[in-house]
Design a protein that fits this description.
7-stranded mixed sheet, 9 helices, single chain, alpha/beta
Length: 316
Amino acid sequence: MVYERYGGPERLELREVARPVPSTGQVLVEVVATAINLSDWEGLRGSPGYARIGGLFRPKRTVLGSDIAGRVVAVGEGVTRFAVGDDVFGDNLALLGGFAEYCVAPESALSPKPVELSFAEAATIPQAGAIAAQAAALAAPGSRMLVNGAGGGSGSFLVQLARSAGVHVTAVDNAGKLGFLRALGADEVIDYRQADFTRTGPYDLIVDLVARRSIFAYRRALAAGGRCVVVGGTSRTVLRMVTVGPLLGRLTGRHLGLLLVRQGPAGFAPVADLCAEGRIDIHIDRTFPLEEVGEALAWHGEGRAKGKVVVMVGSE
């Protein structure tokens, strides 16, 4: 599924293209499933502005899709961790290409797929799981955490991880997801259309997955010594978190900044293990075929998905 200009799903076109060839340190994966992330929606639209890094006027990579699960069908020179026939999954954020029958990925981005998980389930974990695990690690047992955008992929993992660690979780999303959030284990839920969560609290940790508030509003909702981290959101909010956030934090005794997510299997494999053991649930809201990637992106990007959206490219 190719796009050559930024815009909506109408920019996508299903094409026959040459099968990619893995170079040194890469493997060729026959894609079975790929999960939608907010980064895919942003990359399609070229918005916020940081989504255009590397391709200001046209996308640098014309095939989106970073979270992949599939089978290794060829390996490049120097590959030692995988062989043809291995089942793998991972976040191919550097090269993308998951919305296709085949894609190349660095072997360092992949991990063996747990046998207990289907390809669809494994595809949901890499990016969302890494974000959730590293955000949850910032919360101490007994502390109060608020998660904005909690009903999506990262949020659904984060709520569960935090609750299992003894954290009191307030989950924020639209009214249609509040029941889902309660089922995940959230202690309290807030419909962001009805209440301003920055006027609640105070919280020891705020994780905003769709940040668009002022840094002063975040500071207002934090307890003394508290922390607010954002993962995605408007360019203005992200820029102010990077520039003004540290200064405001020093002046007020709070920490405001970005969650810098560690990429690679070390970030997501522990979450996959928890899912394989049945300690964390995977929630797949909908699955779409490759021909309907546009619809899948819109369903996720417009905030309608409860948990993850998966595109099935091949057969389990």
